[in-house]
């Protein structure tokens, strides 16, 4: 038996701010509809009249299901057919159970492991897809920038640490040098004082 698999796409309008939600919708219209580049989207995969997706939670699996096109946390946008699977209902339940173990809610990451990454993994397991790249293009881009920034700043941080260590060494050396000079000055001053006392004693003896 073959079953159609579809991808339901939503605008991410889960903010408590109406202005922020409207901004997201406008960004998606500009970058996806006008420029074809993607945007800020939530996705769920529908198979056998049930929609599956992934989200954050402190404990347990982040994989959950809802009525197709019915995720009330977001604003439904469009549906994209991504293939036909021949997976049996029994095998499908096993696959979902495996994914529930592999995708704990605490592993959620906005850029590197989000709902769209889950949809890609689920689609691959079903033998369908791929999921259109534009649904996750913005998070993937942001994640790449973050990695590049981390890689670029690492040598700078190392250089800064080395400079700090060098500065500390120079400072310690200078402090020792100044202390030596002060000790020498103190020693010279002490010797001069002793010599003056010796001269004074001799003078007293001569007068006596």
Keywords:
PPPDE_sf; 55% helix; deubiquitinase activity; 208 residues; endopeptidase fold (from Nostoc punctiforme)
Question: What general form does the structure show?
Answer: globular
Strand composition percent: 15-25%
**Unreliable stretches, pLDDT < 50, 5 or more residues?**
148-153, 201-208
Structural class: alpha+beta
Oligomer: single chain
- Main sheet summary: 5 strands, antiparallel
Q: What gap, in angstroms, lies between the N and C termini?
A: 132 Å
CATH topology of the domain at 3-137, which one?
endopeptidase fold (from Nostoc punctiforme)
**Mean pLDDT over the full residue set:** 80
Q: CATH first level of the domain at 3-137: which class?
A: Alpha Beta
Query: How many helices?
Result: 4
What is the helix fraction of residues, given as a range? 40-55%
**What is the radius of gyration computed over CA atoms, rounded to a whole number of angstroms?**
36 Å
Look at the structure and name the CATH superfamily of the domain at 3-137.
PPPDE domains
Q: How would you describe what is shown here?
A:
One of its GO terms (biological process) is proteolysis. GO terms for molecular function: deubiquitinase activity. Keywords: Hydrolase, Protease. InterPro entries: PPPDE_dom, PPPDE_sf. This is PPPDE domain-containing protein. The protein is built from four helices and five strands, in the order βαββββααα. The protein has helices at about 20-35, 90-100, 115-125, 135-205; strands at about 5-10, 40-45, 50-55, 65, 75-85. It is globular. The chain is an alpha+beta fold. A five-stranded antiparallel beta sheet has the order 4-3-2-1-5. It is about 55% helix and about 15% strand. Residues about 150-155 and about 200-208 have low confidence and may be disordered. It has a domain at about 5-135: endopeptidase fold (from Nostoc punctiforme), CATH 3.90.1720.30. The chain starts with a strand and ends with a helix. The longest helix has about 70 residues, at about 135-205.
């Amino acid at each position: 038996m073959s079953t159609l698999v579809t991808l339901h796409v939503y605008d991410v309008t889960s903010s408590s701010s109406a202005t922020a939600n409207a901004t997201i919708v406008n960004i998606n219209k500009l970058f996806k509809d006008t420029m074809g580049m993607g945007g800020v989207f939530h996705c769920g995969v529908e198979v056998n009249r049930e929609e599956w997706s992934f989200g954050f939670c402190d404990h347990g699996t982040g994989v959950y299901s809802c009525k197709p096109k019915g995720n009330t946390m977001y604003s439904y946008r469009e549906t994209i057919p991504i293939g036909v699977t021949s997976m049996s209902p029994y095998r499908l339940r096993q696959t979902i159970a495996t994914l529930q173990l592999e995708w704990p809610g605490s592993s959620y990451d906005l850029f590197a492991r989000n709902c769209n990454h889950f949809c890609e993994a689920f689609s691959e397991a079903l033998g369908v897809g791929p999921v259109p790249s534009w649904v996750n293009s913005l998070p993937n881009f942001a994640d790449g920038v973050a990695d590049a920034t981390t890689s670029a700043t690492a040598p700078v941080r190392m250089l800064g640490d080395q400079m700090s260590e060098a500065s500390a060494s120079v400072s310690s050396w200078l402090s020792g040098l100044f202390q030596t000079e002060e000790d020498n000055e103190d020693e010279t001053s002490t010797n001069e004082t002793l010599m003056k006392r010796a001269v004074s004693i001799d003078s007293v003896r001569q007068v006596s």
